Amino acid sequence: MISLKEDKEKKYIEELKKKILRLKKIRNAVIIVHNYQRDEIQDIADISGDSLALSQAAVRTDAKVIAFCGVHFMAESASILNPDKTVLLPVIEAGCPMADMITPEKLYAKKLEYPDAAVVCYVNSSAEIKAESDICCTSSNAIEIVKSLKNKRIIFVPDRNLARYVQSQIPEKEIIPWNGFCPTHIRLQEEEVTLAKRLYPEAEFIAHPECQPDVLSLADHICSTGGMFTYVKKSLKKEFIIGTESGMLYKLKKENPQKRFYLPTAHLICPSMKLTTLGWVAHALEYMINEIKVSDEIRKKAKRSLDKMLEISGEKKWMAVSGY
Ligand code: 13P
Ligand code: SF4
User: Fold this and answer.
1) What is the pLDDT of residue 111?
2) pLDDT tens digit sequence for 259-292
3) Interval 74-97 mean pLDDT
4) pTM (2 decimals)?
5) Which segments of 54-112 are extended strands (E)?
6) 123-126: long-range pairs with CB below 8 Å, 24+
7) Ligand 1, pocket residues at CB < 6 Å
8) Closest ligand 2 atom number to CA of residue 73
9) Which ligand has the minimum distance to the alpha carbon of residue 225?
Protein backbone atom coordinates (compact mmCIF):
# COMPACT_ATOMS: atom_id res chain seq x y z
CA MET A 1 0.00 0.00 0.00
CA ILE A 2 1.26 3.45 -0.88
CA SER A 3 1.80 5.71 2.19
CA LEU A 4 0.53 9.28 2.48
CA LYS A 5 4.12 10.57 2.28
CA GLU A 6 4.82 8.58 -0.90
CA ASP A 7 1.54 9.75 -2.42
CA LYS A 8 2.44 13.39 -1.68
CA GLU A 9 5.91 12.94 -3.19
CA LYS A 10 4.45 11.34 -6.32
CA LYS A 11 2.05 14.25 -6.79
CA TYR A 12 4.88 16.75 -6.24
CA ILE A 13 7.00 15.04 -8.91
CA GLU A 14 4.10 15.02 -11.39
CA GLU A 15 3.45 18.72 -10.75
CA LEU A 16 7.12 19.54 -11.33
CA LYS A 17 7.13 17.55 -14.58
CA LYS A 18 4.07 19.49 -15.79
CA LYS A 19 5.72 22.77 -14.82
CA ILE A 20 8.88 21.85 -16.76
CA LEU A 21 6.78 20.93 -19.80
CA ARG A 22 5.04 24.33 -19.64
CA LEU A 23 8.32 26.21 -19.26
CA LYS A 24 9.86 24.24 -22.11
CA LYS A 25 7.18 25.52 -24.48
CA ILE A 26 7.44 29.12 -23.24
CA ARG A 27 11.25 29.13 -23.58
CA ASN A 28 11.41 27.06 -26.77
CA ALA A 29 13.76 24.72 -24.92
CA VAL A 30 15.02 21.19 -25.35
CA ILE A 31 16.05 18.98 -22.41
CA ILE A 32 19.20 17.00 -22.97
CA VAL A 33 20.10 14.33 -20.43
CA HIS A 34 23.22 12.25 -19.83
CA ASN A 35 22.83 8.52 -19.15
CA TYR A 36 24.01 8.90 -15.52
CA GLN A 37 21.27 11.31 -14.47
CA ARG A 38 18.54 10.47 -11.93
CA ASP A 39 15.60 8.32 -13.15
CA GLU A 40 13.09 11.18 -12.98
CA ILE A 41 15.42 13.38 -15.05
CA GLN A 42 15.68 10.60 -17.65
CA ASP A 43 11.88 10.70 -17.78
CA ILE A 44 11.77 14.35 -18.89
CA ALA A 45 14.53 13.97 -21.52
CA ASP A 46 13.90 15.02 -25.09
CA ILE A 47 17.22 13.42 -25.90
CA SER A 48 19.34 11.16 -23.71
CA GLY A 49 22.69 9.57 -24.43
CA ASP A 50 26.41 10.00 -23.91
CA SER A 51 28.30 13.27 -23.68
CA LEU A 52 29.16 14.30 -27.20
CA ALA A 53 26.26 12.53 -28.92
CA LEU A 54 24.14 14.90 -26.86
CA SER A 55 26.06 17.95 -28.01
CA GLN A 56 25.68 16.78 -31.59
CA ALA A 57 21.98 16.33 -31.07
CA ALA A 58 21.90 19.85 -29.70
CA VAL A 59 23.31 21.20 -32.97
CA ARG A 60 20.37 19.75 -34.88
CA THR A 61 17.65 21.05 -32.63
CA ASP A 62 15.63 24.13 -33.59
CA ALA A 63 15.15 24.98 -29.93
CA LYS A 64 16.61 28.28 -28.75
CA VAL A 65 17.43 27.04 -25.24
CA ILE A 66 19.19 23.85 -24.17
CA ALA A 67 18.70 22.68 -20.59
CA PHE A 68 21.70 20.37 -20.21
CA CYS A 69 21.24 17.80 -17.46
CA GLY A 70 24.75 16.50 -16.97
CA VAL A 71 28.01 18.00 -15.77
CA HIS A 72 29.80 21.24 -16.66
CA PHE A 73 32.08 20.00 -19.48
CA MET A 74 29.08 18.52 -21.29
CA ALA A 75 27.10 21.77 -21.24
CA GLU A 76 30.28 23.59 -22.20
CA SER A 77 30.79 21.33 -25.24
CA ALA A 78 27.18 22.01 -26.24
CA SER A 79 27.83 25.73 -25.92
CA ILE A 80 31.10 25.52 -27.93
CA LEU A 81 29.28 23.75 -30.73
CA ASN A 82 26.16 25.95 -30.50
CA PRO A 83 27.27 29.50 -29.76
CA ASP A 84 23.95 30.97 -30.86
CA LYS A 85 21.91 28.93 -28.40
CA THR A 86 21.44 29.51 -24.71
CA VAL A 87 22.87 26.52 -22.85
CA LEU A 88 21.77 26.18 -19.22
CA LEU A 89 23.32 23.88 -16.62
CA PRO A 90 20.57 23.57 -13.96
CA VAL A 91 23.11 23.15 -11.11
CA ILE A 92 26.19 25.27 -11.69
CA GLU A 93 28.22 23.25 -9.12
CA ALA A 94 27.81 20.04 -11.15
CA GLY A 95 31.40 19.65 -12.29
CA CYS A 96 33.47 16.62 -13.25
CA PRO A 97 36.37 16.15 -10.79
CA MET A 98 38.40 14.40 -13.48
CA ALA A 99 38.13 17.40 -15.79
CA ASP A 100 39.55 19.53 -12.95
CA MET A 101 42.66 17.33 -12.59
CA ILE A 102 44.51 19.24 -15.29
CA THR A 103 45.28 22.91 -15.88
CA PRO A 104 46.29 24.61 -19.15
CA GLU A 105 49.61 25.67 -17.55
CA LYS A 106 50.54 22.12 -16.59
CA LEU A 107 49.52 20.83 -20.01
CA TYR A 108 51.62 23.52 -21.65
CA ALA A 109 54.64 22.39 -19.60
CA LYS A 110 54.06 18.77 -20.66
CA LYS A 111 53.90 19.83 -24.31
CA LEU A 112 57.32 21.49 -23.92
CA GLU A 113 58.67 18.25 -22.46
CA TYR A 114 57.44 16.26 -25.50
CA PRO A 115 57.54 18.64 -28.47
CA ASP A 116 57.02 15.81 -30.99
CA ALA A 117 53.83 14.52 -29.35
CA ALA A 118 50.23 15.21 -30.36
CA VAL A 119 47.79 16.06 -27.56
CA VAL A 120 44.56 14.09 -27.41
CA CYS A 121 42.05 15.24 -24.84
CA TYR A 122 39.17 13.22 -23.56
CA VAL A 123 35.91 15.16 -23.90
CA ASN A 124 35.79 15.18 -20.06
CA SER A 125 37.91 18.33 -20.00
CA SER A 126 37.50 22.09 -19.87
CA ALA A 127 37.25 24.35 -22.91
CA GLU A 128 40.76 25.67 -22.10
CA ILE A 129 42.22 22.15 -22.26
CA LYS A 130 40.35 21.42 -25.50
CA ALA A 131 41.78 24.67 -26.88
CA GLU A 132 45.33 23.53 -26.00
CA SER A 133 44.84 20.07 -27.57
CA ASP A 134 45.23 18.85 -31.13
CA ILE A 135 42.10 16.77 -31.09
CA CYS A 136 39.33 15.58 -28.77
CA CYS A 137 38.08 12.05 -28.24
CA THR A 138 35.41 10.23 -26.31
CA SER A 139 35.38 6.82 -24.71
CA SER A 140 33.78 5.34 -27.84
CA ASN A 141 36.22 6.68 -30.43
CA ALA A 142 39.50 7.12 -28.49
CA ILE A 143 41.21 4.21 -30.28
CA GLU A 144 40.11 5.42 -33.70
CA ILE A 145 41.23 8.99 -32.97
CA VAL A 146 44.67 7.98 -31.69
CA LYS A 147 45.19 5.62 -34.64
CA SER A 148 44.32 8.42 -37.06
CA LEU A 149 47.25 10.56 -35.89
CA LYS A 150 50.64 10.44 -37.63
CA ASN A 151 52.55 11.14 -34.39
CA LYS A 152 54.05 8.12 -32.69
CA ARG A 153 53.92 9.88 -29.33
CA ILE A 154 50.61 10.97 -27.84
CA ILE A 155 50.03 12.96 -24.67
CA PHE A 156 46.65 11.67 -23.55
CA VAL A 157 44.72 13.80 -21.03
CA PRO A 158 43.23 13.76 -18.43
CA ASP A 159 42.13 10.13 -17.79
CA ARG A 160 45.00 7.73 -17.09
CA ASN A 161 42.72 4.69 -17.26
CA LEU A 162 41.35 5.50 -20.70
CA ALA A 163 44.92 6.34 -21.75
CA ARG A 164 46.18 2.94 -20.57
CA TYR A 165 43.30 1.17 -22.27
CA VAL A 166 44.12 2.95 -25.55
CA GLN A 167 47.80 2.01 -25.09
CA SER A 168 46.85 -1.65 -24.66
CA GLN A 169 44.99 -1.52 -27.99
CA ILE A 170 47.66 0.43 -29.90
CA PRO A 171 51.05 -0.96 -28.77
CA GLU A 172 52.83 0.61 -31.77
CA LYS A 173 52.34 4.10 -30.28
CA GLU A 174 53.71 5.61 -27.11
CA ILE A 175 50.90 7.01 -24.99
CA ILE A 176 51.93 9.42 -22.27
CA PRO A 177 49.04 9.36 -19.78
CA TRP A 178 48.01 12.29 -17.63
CA ASN A 179 47.51 11.22 -14.02
CA GLY A 180 43.79 12.03 -13.81
CA PHE A 181 41.00 9.61 -13.01
CA CYS A 182 37.29 9.36 -12.39
CA PRO A 183 36.70 9.17 -8.60
CA THR A 184 33.54 7.15 -9.22
CA HIS A 185 34.92 4.51 -11.59
CA ILE A 186 38.10 3.91 -9.59
CA ARG A 187 35.96 2.81 -6.64
CA LEU A 188 35.11 -0.38 -8.47
CA GLN A 189 37.45 -3.11 -7.23
CA GLU A 190 38.64 -6.25 -8.99
CA GLU A 191 37.42 -8.45 -6.08
CA GLU A 192 33.91 -6.99 -6.36
CA VAL A 193 33.75 -7.92 -10.02
CA THR A 194 35.09 -11.40 -9.32
CA LEU A 195 32.44 -11.90 -6.64
CA ALA A 196 29.66 -10.62 -8.92
CA LYS A 197 30.84 -13.00 -11.64
CA ARG A 198 30.67 -15.87 -9.15
CA LEU A 199 27.16 -14.83 -8.09
CA TYR A 200 25.95 -14.44 -11.68
CA PRO A 201 27.97 -16.96 -13.71
CA GLU A 202 25.80 -16.53 -16.80
CA ALA A 203 26.23 -12.75 -16.90
CA GLU A 204 28.52 -10.81 -19.22
CA PHE A 205 30.62 -8.09 -17.59
CA ILE A 206 30.55 -4.80 -19.51
CA ALA A 207 32.91 -2.07 -18.31
CA HIS A 208 33.52 1.60 -19.01
CA PRO A 209 37.15 2.35 -19.95
CA GLU A 210 37.39 4.78 -17.01
CA CYS A 211 37.62 1.69 -14.75
CA GLN A 212 41.03 0.59 -13.48
CA PRO A 213 43.14 -1.80 -15.64
CA ASP A 214 42.68 -4.83 -13.32
CA VAL A 215 38.89 -4.38 -13.56
CA LEU A 216 39.04 -3.94 -17.34
CA SER A 217 41.04 -7.17 -17.64
CA LEU A 218 37.94 -9.01 -16.38
CA ALA A 219 35.56 -7.40 -18.89
CA ASP A 220 33.81 -9.24 -21.72
CA HIS A 221 33.26 -5.91 -23.43
CA ILE A 222 34.65 -2.39 -22.89
CA CYS A 223 32.73 0.60 -24.24
CA SER A 224 31.13 4.00 -23.64
CA THR A 225 27.73 4.34 -21.97
CA GLY A 226 26.08 4.73 -25.37
CA GLY A 227 27.92 1.63 -26.58
CA MET A 228 26.51 -0.36 -23.66
CA PHE A 229 22.93 0.13 -24.88
CA THR A 230 23.85 -1.06 -28.36
CA TYR A 231 25.80 -4.03 -27.02
CA VAL A 232 23.09 -5.20 -24.60
CA LYS A 233 20.40 -4.92 -27.28
CA LYS A 234 22.39 -7.08 -29.70
CA SER A 235 23.70 -9.63 -27.19
CA LEU A 236 22.01 -13.01 -26.93
CA LYS A 237 22.89 -13.09 -23.23
CA LYS A 238 20.17 -12.42 -20.66
CA GLU A 239 22.24 -11.11 -17.74
CA PHE A 240 24.80 -8.31 -17.47
CA ILE A 241 27.10 -6.97 -14.77
CA ILE A 242 27.47 -3.25 -15.41
CA GLY A 243 30.82 -1.62 -14.68
CA THR A 244 29.84 2.02 -14.76
CA GLU A 245 27.70 4.62 -12.97
CA SER A 246 24.43 3.33 -11.47
CA GLY A 247 22.21 5.75 -13.45
CA MET A 248 22.66 3.47 -16.47
CA LEU A 249 20.43 0.78 -15.02
CA TYR A 250 17.18 2.72 -15.33
CA LYS A 251 17.22 2.97 -19.14
CA LEU A 252 18.91 -0.42 -19.60
CA LYS A 253 16.05 -2.10 -17.70
CA LYS A 254 13.42 -0.01 -19.47
CA GLU A 255 14.76 -0.81 -22.94
CA ASN A 256 15.45 -4.48 -22.17
CA PRO A 257 12.68 -5.69 -19.83
CA GLN A 258 13.49 -9.33 -20.52
CA LYS A 259 17.13 -8.94 -19.44
CA ARG A 260 18.71 -8.59 -15.99
CA PHE A 261 21.31 -6.07 -14.86
CA TYR A 262 23.55 -6.11 -11.79
CA LEU A 263 25.92 -3.56 -10.27
CA PRO A 264 29.05 -5.15 -8.77
CA THR A 265 29.17 -2.53 -5.99
CA ALA A 266 26.88 0.05 -4.40
CA HIS A 267 29.62 2.68 -4.79
CA LEU A 268 29.16 3.44 -8.47
CA ILE A 269 27.47 6.78 -7.94
CA CYS A 270 28.76 10.06 -9.39
CA PRO A 271 27.73 12.73 -6.85
CA SER A 272 27.98 15.51 -9.46
CA MET A 273 25.62 13.74 -11.83
CA LYS A 274 23.06 13.34 -9.06
CA LEU A 275 22.95 17.06 -8.18
CA THR A 276 20.40 17.80 -10.89
CA THR A 277 16.83 17.45 -9.70
CA LEU A 278 13.47 18.27 -11.29
CA GLY A 279 13.24 21.31 -9.02
CA TRP A 280 16.54 22.73 -10.31
CA VAL A 281 15.60 22.11 -13.95
CA ALA A 282 12.32 23.98 -13.41
CA HIS A 283 14.18 26.77 -11.58
CA ALA A 284 16.76 27.19 -14.37
CA LEU A 285 14.07 27.35 -17.05
CA GLU A 286 11.86 29.69 -15.06
CA TYR A 287 14.59 32.25 -14.27
CA MET A 288 16.95 31.46 -17.20
CA ILE A 289 19.94 31.13 -14.88
CA ASN A 290 23.29 29.29 -15.06
CA GLU A 291 24.02 29.97 -18.71
CA ILE A 292 27.28 28.35 -19.87
CA LYS A 293 29.34 30.60 -22.10
CA VAL A 294 32.90 30.35 -23.38
CA SER A 295 34.94 33.37 -24.51
CA ASP A 296 35.19 33.59 -28.29
CA GLU A 297 38.96 33.16 -28.32
CA ILE A 298 38.90 29.88 -26.35
CA ARG A 299 35.70 28.69 -28.01
CA LYS A 300 37.12 28.86 -31.52
CA LYS A 301 40.24 26.88 -30.57
CA ALA A 302 38.26 24.33 -28.53
CA LYS A 303 35.77 23.89 -31.38
CA ARG A 304 38.65 23.03 -33.70
CA SER A 305 39.53 20.04 -31.45
CA LEU A 306 35.92 18.90 -31.32
CA ASP A 307 35.38 19.38 -35.07
CA LYS A 308 38.51 17.41 -35.96
CA MET A 309 37.23 14.51 -33.91
CA LEU A 310 33.86 14.63 -35.65
CA GLU A 311 35.50 14.76 -39.07
CA ILE A 312 37.30 11.50 -38.29
CA SER A 313 34.44 9.71 -36.61
CA GLY A 314 31.79 11.11 -38.96
CA GLU A 315 28.50 12.14 -37.51
CA LYS A 316 26.55 9.14 -38.82
CA LYS A 317 29.12 6.73 -37.49
CA TRP A 318 29.25 8.71 -34.27
CA MET A 319 25.51 8.25 -33.79
CA ALA A 320 25.88 4.51 -34.34
CA VAL A 321 28.80 3.99 -31.95
CA SER A 322 27.23 6.03 -29.21
CA GLY A 323 24.05 4.00 -29.49
CA TYR A 324 22.11 7.18 -29.92
P1 13P B 1 30.22 8.52 -21.82
O2 13P B 1 30.65 9.49 -22.87
O3 13P B 1 30.62 7.10 -22.08
O4 13P B 1 28.76 8.64 -21.53
O5 13P B 1 31.01 8.89 -20.49
C6 13P B 1 30.81 10.09 -19.83
C7 13P B 1 31.35 10.03 -18.48
O8 13P B 1 31.41 10.99 -17.76
C9 13P B 1 31.82 8.75 -18.01
O10 13P B 1 32.16 8.87 -16.71
FE1 SF4 C 1 33.32 12.87 -14.16
FE2 SF4 C 1 33.41 10.35 -13.36
FE3 SF4 C 1 31.26 11.76 -12.87
FE4 SF4 C 1 31.84 11.02 -15.37
S5 SF4 C 1 31.30 9.68 -13.67
S6 SF4 C 1 31.17 13.01 -14.71
S7 SF4 C 1 34.07 11.13 -15.32
S8 SF4 C 1 33.30 12.13 -12.05
Assistant:
1) 98
2) 999 999 999 999 999 999 999 999 999 999 999 9
3) 95
4) 0.94
5) 65-69, 86-88
6) 123/51, 123/52, 123/73, 123/77, 123/306, 124/51, 124/73, 124/96, 124/98, 124/99, 124/158, 124/159, 124/182, 125/73, 125/99, 125/157, 125/158, 126/73, 126/76, 126/99, 126/100
7) 35, 50-51, 124, 138-139, 182, 210, 224-225
8) 6
9) 1
